[in-house]
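Checked the freezer inventory, then went back to the computational side. Two predictions to log before the end of the day. The first one is the construct we discussed on Monday; recording sequence and tokens without edits.
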Amino acid sequence: MRRGHCVVGDDNASGAIPPSLSERLDALARAAHPGLRAGCRRIATGDELALTSAELRPLERSIDSVRRASGAARIVAKALLKQLGAAPGVELPRSASRAPVWPPGFVGSLAHDDEYAAAAVASSVSLRGVGIDIEPALPLPEELLEMIATESELKQINGDLVLARLLFCMKEAVYKATHPTDGVFLGHHDVEVSLESSVALTISGHSLRVYTIERPRLVALALLTP
């Protein structure tokens, strides 16, 4: 699957070692916007120990895997914030909406699946919002297709359930990019995606460019520009 400019990091037939998912994500972010940084890591035992007391407090009743994934995503995010000049020792506690609270001057987004945690961060001068989502490159359960896709999107997908899962990923990223700005809870049918142009339109009036990776994981980066 290839749509315009949104896919990066094709496998190299020369036999060279292909770039890691984190390297692909870093390249995607830099290509999407010079002020954007993104990365990911495999979730590992002990990542939950990276959570500060403020970050851990809302997760005290969560199972270990949730705390571990949250810690892994914050490890990535804090490294990206450091790259962009944030003060050391920043914390990323949860807001009432469960989204992370970013330090003044920055916008960002966190995501994880069962194996990887990812983050994207930018200066709030560069971007109004950024959203990231990550999913395994597996078919979307067919019974969810009409729940997440509009009539126009169903035609674009044309029965490709892996592409349908990428569409889901893109819509999740769009929601994460826009909600901190306007506070609107978007349903899946409140976002219309053109898979050809990689542009998403929301019922709340936003138009966002969405950049994607399709292997070894599905990743979507949505950018809300000033």
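The second is the one RB wanted added to the comparison set:
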Amino acid sequence: MSTKQEQFEYEALSIMSQSVVPVGSSALSILMRKAGLNISAATIGRQLSDFDYSGMTTKHGFRGRTITESGRVRLAELREKLKWQDLSAKFYKTLDVQTKDNLIDILTARRGIEREIARLAAIKSTPSDISLIREAFEMQSEKAASGGLIFDSDLVFHRAVAAASKNEVLAAAYDFIWQNGKLSPVMEYIRMYVNGKIVIDHSKILSAIEANSPQEAELLMVSHIESLIDDVQQYWNLAMKG
């Protein structure tokens, strides 16, 4: 959580970084108010004196101040911190009451179920099953290529693989564990920020099922779920830096 001081520093330095002329305390007070920070010109003047002392700004007489290179470095640090705080807030809102450990537990359970689903799909899938899996994969690929959200087609893909396994108990267990796809948007949100490659994973799994290679399909599915787990860990570590 950022402090009031950090919020002030961020807004003040941001305003000065966008100005081609020196910014005075009165003008800064008005602009800060527009940004939602109601701070008097006198208080701003004292804060700016601290900026001068720390080398983040340079005073130009009564005309105001400009940001220094040191100030730009500080602004970049604050911007990065605020970005991760915003991501963390959005993430927790998306998860609702979920926690990192809870999400990893869910993915771990999924790993055990879906490794067997993938193995059976490679053995028992029919041409019709393969067609449905490929259709889901192609829909997902098109959405990913256009920058769209793919969580709905991700769910369709995994359900198609589960159906191809011809094991209704495992298919039902997948739906139960994954809460009917409720957490798919969460995983997409995470992968968006840690550069996860879900479409590539699915392409490999589809190829193994098409080739009737149960061992390869199983290993690829395990790798896919473990990649999801790694993404959760990586995202949480990045988010907690804020």
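For RB: The chain has a mean pLDDT of 85. The chain has two domains: 4-82, 96-240. Let me know if you want it refolded.
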